[in-house]
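Researcher: I've got a protein sequence and the SMILES for zinc ion. Could you write out the 3D structure of the bound complex as C-alpha cells? I'd like something to compare against our soaking experiments later this week.
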Amino acid sequence: MTSRVQTTLTALQYSVVEAVRVNIETANDYFGKTLVVPEVRFDLRGKSAGQARFEYPRAFGLVKKASPVIRFNRILMEENPQAFINEVAPHEVAHVVANQLFGRKIKPHGQEWKMIMRSVLKQEPSVTHRFDVSRASPKSYIYSCECHGLTHCLSAIRHNRVQRQQSSYLCRNCNATLGYTGELA
Ligand SMILES: [Zn+2]
Ligand SMILES: [Zn+2]
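Model: Sure. Here is the predicted complex with zinc ion in place.
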C-alpha cells in the first residue's frame, strides 16, 4: 500500500474553485470593487454543504482585514457536483461578499446576503439544501452497558461486526459487554 499526498485538485474541485472565482468577479463588476478571493478548502464534514469563515489575523494588537475561507463538504460535493457549482458556490460567495461590504455584524442570511444572492448572483436565496446526507453524515448505533444513564455510540462498521458476532465491545467503566439499544438518525 502506498499513500499518496494529494497536491493537485481534482477536475471537480477545480470547477468549484473556478465557480467561486467567477462569482467574486460578478460581484466585483456589480459593485465596482476588487473583493478578496477566498481561500477554498474541501475539508467540511457532516450535514452542511459549505461554510464561509472569516479569520481575523491580529498583528501588534490590531485586528487586520478578514481573510475569507470557504469550506466545502467533499462527500456531498462528489454526490451533487452540478448543484455545488451552480448553487452552493454562489451561496457561500454571497457570505464572503456580504462580509467584505457590510462587515461582521450582519446576520448570516439577513437582508444584505439576500440582496447579493438575488440582485448580484441571480440566485434564489434559499438557506437549506436538499442533499441526501446519509453518506456524509452516517448513522450512529446506540449501545448500553451497566452504568446508569450511560450510552455508547458505535459506528456502522463496529455495529455490523457486533451483529455478525465478529466482535463485542466492553464498557471501559463497568466492563460489561455493550448491548444494542437502537439507531440514532
Ligand atoms: Zn449560508
Ligand atoms: Zn458501563
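Model: Strands lie at 39-44, 50-55, 58-59, 62-63, 67-73, 140-144, 151-154, 179-184. The mean pLDDT is 89.
Researcher: Great, I'll pass this along to the crystallography team.
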